[in-house]
């Protein structure tokens, strides 16, 4: 009954590989997000989709490409992985864009390690 | 540009005492302020929020205070329990929800000792 589920939970891969992280929410929310938590622990927005439409696209390398086949799914594909991409990636959702007063619902994170 | 700062990386308190976690922000356009709690290997979970028209919001043992003139908010946990041991993130969000862009602090690790 997980509200926001992301797979895989752990991902270890070599530099130069291409990998994908999947996210699904069963809350009926319209808006989904990808956040990156780096070694300094900051949670930084990467992308946001509202009803399959891209609404936030922060300054991230274009090796990162989000895809939202429907409003319940937001996947993240990363090409040509680099060491600096190692981080924990969190998917989140909300009923509408923005946190409002009830916040986001986060997935449990995907720890990506590039070796 | 760190718009939301949590200057204390860690805090240790005794069970039953008060825990006070602090957060400062710089952007006066923020209208909602939220606290999240995060356990290891889990995602952050929403705890409590406050809008800029209020200066206090209470939910059980958790109270958030907002001082807009000082651009400062704090989370009080009374009484603290060992299960409260976690990383706490504050977040700030503009009213214009179409922007959808919230900013998070880098977290404070709270340890509540039995």
**How many strands of chain B?**
11
Return Rg of chain A in Å. Answer: 13 Å
Low-confidence stretches of chain B: none
Figure out the total of helices of chain A: 0
- Number of β-strand runs of chain A: 11
What is the 3D form of chain A? globular
Distance between the termini of chain B: 38 Å
Mean pLDDT of chain A: 93
The greatest inter-chain interface is formed by:
A-B, 31 and 28 residues
Mean pLDDT of chain B: 92
How would you spell out the order of helices and strands of chain A? EEEEEEEEEEE
Major beta sheet of chain A, specifics?
Answer: 7 strands, mixed
User: Which percent band covers the strand fraction of chain B?
Assistant: over 45%
Percent in helix of chain B? under 10%
Sheet with most strands of chain B = 6 strands, mixed
Cα(first) to Cα(last) distance of chain A is 34 Å
Q: Structural class from helices and strands of chain B? A: mainly beta
The 3D shape of chain B can be described as globular
Low-confidence runs of chain A: none
Write the layout of secondary structure elements.
The complex is a heterodimer of chains A (115) and B (114).
Chain A lengths: L3 E4 L2 E4 L5 E7 L5 E7 L5 E8 L2 E5 L6 E7 L2 E6 L8 E8 L10 E2 L3 E5 L1
Parallel strand pairs in A: 2-11
Antiparallel strand pairs in A: 1-3, 3-8, 4-5, 4-9, 5-6, 7-8, 9-10, 9-11
Chain B lengths: L3 E2 L4 E5 L4 E7 L4 E9 L6 E7 L4 E4 L2 E6 L4 E6 L8 E9 L8 E2 L3 E6 L1
């Amino acid at each position: 009954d997980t509200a926001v589920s992301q797979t895989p939970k752990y991902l270890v891969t070599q530099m130069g590989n291409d990998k994908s992280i999947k996210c699904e929410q069963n809350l009926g929310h319209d808006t989904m997000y990808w956040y990156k938590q780096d070694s300094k622990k900051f949670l930084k927005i990467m992308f946001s989709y509202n009803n399959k439409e891209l609404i936030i696209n922060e300054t991230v390398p274009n090796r990162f490409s989000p895809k939202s086949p429907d409003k319940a799914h937001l996947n993240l594909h990363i090409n040509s992985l680099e060491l600096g991409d190692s981080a924990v990636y969190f998917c989140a959702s909300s009923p509408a864009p923005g946190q409002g007063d009830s916040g986001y619902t986060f997935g449990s994170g995907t720890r990506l390690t590039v070796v | 540009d760190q718009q939301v700062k949590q200057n204390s990386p860690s805090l240790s308190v005794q069970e039953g005492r008060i825990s006070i976690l602090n957060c400062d922000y710089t952007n006066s356009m923020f209208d909602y302020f939220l606290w999240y709690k995060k356990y290891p290997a889990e995602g952050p979970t929403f705890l409590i929020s406050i809008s800029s028209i209020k200066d206090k919001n209470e939910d059980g043992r958790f109270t958030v205070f907002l001082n807009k003139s000082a651009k400062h908010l704090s989370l009080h946990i009374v009484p603290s329990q060992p299960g409260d041991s976690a990383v706490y993130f504050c977040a700030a969000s503009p009213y214009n929800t179409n922007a959808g862009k919230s900013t998070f602090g880098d977290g404070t690790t709270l340890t509540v000792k039995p």
